[in-house]
Amino acid sequence: MVVMARLSLQERLDLVFDVEDLPYEEEMMRNQFFVKCWLHYIEFKQTPPTPEAQAQSARVLKLLPCSYKLCYCYLMVRRAQVKHRCVTDPTHEDVNNCHEWALVFMHKMPRLWLDYRQFLVDQGPITHNRRTFNPVLWALLITRTLVFGLCTCTSCVHTHCLRWPCGATKLSPESAEGYIEYLKSRDWLDEAAQCLATMVNDERFLSKAGTSNYQLWHKLCELISQNPDKVQSLNMDTITQGGLTRFTDQLGKLWCSLADHYMLNGHFEKARDVRPSEL
Fold it and tell me: For 180, what's the count of Cα atoms within 13 Å in the CB-facing half-sphere?
């Protein structure tokens, strides 16, 4: 039988057939490449979950390594088996190896990468997580869903969470607005302001949401003026003057943002001097 031929001697010894398994085994001999039959067989063996069921699932994947349904079910069961065990338990490493093996064949499937990411995050090794996720940028298309999904883990360090979406915006500049919203949600306002400044200075930038360059400039001024203690890398005076030069027909909001910035910083005399210039 082809299935048995692909198994090692130890794996063959681990397989135990009961009388109830015979109808399924006969069906497998007739339709060994029919995924639905294997799914029924695995579901039967996993009620309740046993080591024999795990060996049976591994047997199936040896025959059909590119079946997404079989692979997804197998990995889900393996993760459930170690869910309540200590992270130092050797079985966690076994499950990690199962994911690595599966992703060799299913590396274009974002769902498997995201499940593996969450499984690693629960274990806690940040360096191992980063090295594991690096191949994702090469294996998958850079989509906003995947990239930001990988960055929402709260256990990641600051620079690690910044690199993923930053790389995506270089390949897909129109997704920069989503990146800025992500930075705001993490309260990294200085990085958000720097990204906004890059956008408003790029005359070729086209907003996916249809936001005009003036609206982006106003968002930048408002972000800096309302958060003077968190945005330290940009000069509000220079940015406002640049906006006043470029948008001569929309001066009011920019002057108000500059005045608010001075007042929040306690420079009331400068804020007062802005009013005559505004008028």
Answer: 19
Extract the tokens encoding 117: 């990411």
C-alpha–C-alpha distance, residues 134 and 246, integer Å: 41
Which of residues 57 and 9 earns the better pLDDT score?
A: 57
**For residues 196 and 222, what is the distance between their CA atoms, to the nearest angstrom?**
11
Torsion angle in degrees (nearest 10) through CA of 245, 247, 249, 250: -110
Domain segments of the chain as ranges = 1-81+91-106, 172-279
The pLDDT value given to residue 20: 67
Asked if residue 77 lies in contact with residue 55, where contact means CB atoms within 8 angstroms, the answer is: no
Q: What is the dihedral of CA 142, 146, 148, 149, to 10 degrees?
A: -170
pTM score above 0.85 = no
One-letter amino acid at 63 equals L
Residue 107: CB atoms within 10 A of its CB come to 14
CA–CA distance, 171 with 147 (Å, rounded to integer): 12
State percent of the chain over pLDDT 90.
0
249: number of CA atoms within 13 Å, CB side?
Answer: 1
Q: Whose CA is closest to 64, among 89, 32, 93, 40?
A: 32
Q: Helix and strand tally (H, E) in the chain? A: 18, 0
Check whether 33 has a pLDDT greater than 70: no
Q: How far is CA 178 from CA 59, 131, 158, 168, 169, in A?
A: 43, 25, 18, 11, 9
Could you read off the pLDDT of 95-112 as tens digits, one per residue? 888 888 888 888 778 888
Instruction: Assess contact for 129 and 121: CB atoms under 8 A.
Output: yes
Give residue 12's pLDDT: 47
How far apart are alpha carbons 181 and 184 in whole angstroms?
Answer: 5
